Amino acid sequence: MSSAPPRSPAPRAPRMKKDESFLGKLGGTLARKKKARAVSDLQEEGKSAINAPMSPASADVQPEDTQLEENEERTMIDPASREDPKFKELVKVLLDWINDVLVEDRIIVKQLEEDLYDGQVLQKLLEKLANRKLNVAEVTQSEIGQKQKLQTVLEAVFDLLRPHGWALRWSVDSIHGKNLVAILHLLVALATHFRAPIRLPEHVSVQVVVVRKREGLLHSSHVSEELTSTTEQMMGRFERDAFDTLFDHAPDKLNVVKKSLITFVNKQLNKLNLEVTELETQFADGVYLVLLMGLLEDYFVPLHNFYLTPESFDQKVHNVSFAFELMLDGGLRKPKARPEDVVNLDLKSTLRVLYNLFTKYKDVE
User: Fold this and answer.
1) Could you read off the pLDDT of 299-317 as tens digits, one per residue?
2) How many angstroms separate the CA atoms of 81 and 244, rounded?
3) pTM above the 0.70 mark?
4) Do 320 and 339 form a contact (C-beta atoms < 8 A)?
């Protein structure tokens, strides 16, 4: 989108696209047009710099012909990185997550850098996630007002993340300047902190082009920026266990473990004429986990306590969470995995849960 009208909940159902709302029709102010031209000009400057990444820009470029001030530095993602499938997946997962969180507000985010830079959506997102109201103006048209709102929102984020040792790799200026790398760092931190029911792709990195004007000429360099590491590192669970070692160094032994666990669970599930052949998928909805706990502890699980045929992600998470509660009631330690990890078909998480059961119940007939 070439301009960024203010985001605001649509006044009536059915859900409206923000561009169709009353506030959306008020967009296109001179300030926004100027910002759009600046971003467009910077992209052109960046493309020229990318074509000669280690050389100054053409000598006939005059300072007044560009939007960069002397010694000013700006960054942009290398176009090749934008086409990386893992990068695209990260952007899509975060977009879908934001829209799911804000669905009741009838806010539709289509493009992260265009829709989040003024603080409006970030305010609503943080208020939903943290279940608190921020003392900021609802709608701000001026750049000063937008930055003041962003300052308030980011200070609230800082207060939440600071005790957990997060490196804050964003600022008011970078978010308002539509720096996508900074916006992604912020969203990954929020999704991780609030344990969003999503699966972020691991080891996502991008090449960032840094463009600086010196003596009227544009100079560029490339740096690699890591956006995500592993799920466990991002969740702060750094301790490694036997399954980390199996996955990293002994895939042949991993297959032996999988076969042993399949034999173990089928010994019980066969009593209900059920059978598991794929650990990766058949425990993801939580039904077999709940039934398995009932069989191992020798009790009947009332059907109204879980979804026998879950359809939505939330219903599956409910089932796995309920199975975890049954495990705690049975004297087992709280599983290291999250219910969302199991639902998202994370094999390592599923194996950890099943192996936990195996160590206690392997001799149960």
Assistant:
1) 999 999 999 999 998 899 8
2) 29
3) no
4) yes
